[in-house]
Amino acid sequence: MKKIIESVPNFSEGIREEIIKKIVDPIREISDVKVLNLSSDKDHNRSVLTLAGDEDGLKKAVDILFAGAIEHIDLTKHKGEHPRMGAVDVLPFIPIRGITMEECVAFSREIGEHIASTFHIPVYLYEKSATVPERENLANIRKGQFEGFFEKIRSPEWKPDYGPAEVHKTAGAVAVGSREFLVAYNINLATDNLEIASKIAKSIRHSSGGLRFVKAMGVMLEERRIAQVSMNLTDFRKTPIFRVFEMVKNEAARYGVNVIGSEIVGLIPNDALLDVAEYYLRIENFKYSTVLENRLAEVE
Questions:
Q1: Of 40, 63, 41, 38, nearest to 51 (Cα)?
Q2: Is the pTM of this model over 0.85?
Q3: Domains in the chain, CATH or no CATH each
Q4: Taking the CA of residue 296 as centre, how many other CA atoms within 13 Å lie in the half-sphere pointing to its CB?
């Protein structure tokens, strides 16, 4: 069975379409890597790229990605709603087929060491690849963002796993690791009051006593003049999307605010949406194979 690894690099450019093309288009030319999705957000000033391939193909993609990001992104001039510490901010690897999580962790560490030695960028290992518990949570590593990292990296506990103990002057630092599938999910509110979105985010995120496997923050979508609850769902099976949606909707109602829509950034597993359909339609005795396309895949 051919190995398939998903990688979802986030890089700090979501406004300049010509620069996004210069970074991503060369990756599309790699024969053993597929570009499955590209989502760019102007308010976040960030792009999320979804790739799938084997180890060799992804190594080529990583080299192209970092070369392009370092050439075209200068974090001293970057502004956006989403926290960031690097031109390529985070580089996760997710085992999909023919590879175990342990093998994916080993691969991510190999890639991290390669990035550090090739591009002279400090690399932090996170999630399943983390070498110490304090670095499992990406938010802990990213705290302080690019501007604060010049001082943070001098502290012994924040010495990078690979590379120089010095922040790249324009490209910052990067977090690399292997993890389970993550759903990037945002809910938009019928208000331009950022404080309301931030209060809702605080009430639902796990670190503040909310839902397990939810990371959340309030952001402002300036183009639309609406506030958004921006989230990462780190285990959609244990904290399903419908539960998150209902809690955000109920919290918003406390402030007299309606939910006007939601969005998925990047790709999402089939099962995550089937859970939502089963919940809202109240389908009895629902099975995965009830869906025509899934049943056809089973008998092929």
A1: 38
A2: no
A3: 4-178 (3.30.990.10), 183-292 (3.30.70.670)
A4: 3
pLDDT digits (tens, 9 = 90+) for 198-228: 999 999 999 999 999 999 999 999 889 999 9
Residues ≥6 apart with Cβ < 8 Å to 299: none
Q: Which residues partner with 91 through β-bridges?
A: 176
Measuring CA to CA, which residue among 267, 270, 263 is closest to residue 289? 270
> Residues 6 or more apart from 193 whose CB is under 8 A from it?
227, 255, 257
Residues carrying an active site annotation: 82
* β partners of residue 232: 184, 215
User: Which tokens in the block code for residue 72?
Assistant: 């075209």
pLDDT at 1: 56
Rounded Cα distance, 50 and 68, in Å: 16
Beta strands 123-127 and 174-178, pairing class? parallel
By the 8 A CB rule, do 238 and 159 touch?
Answer: no
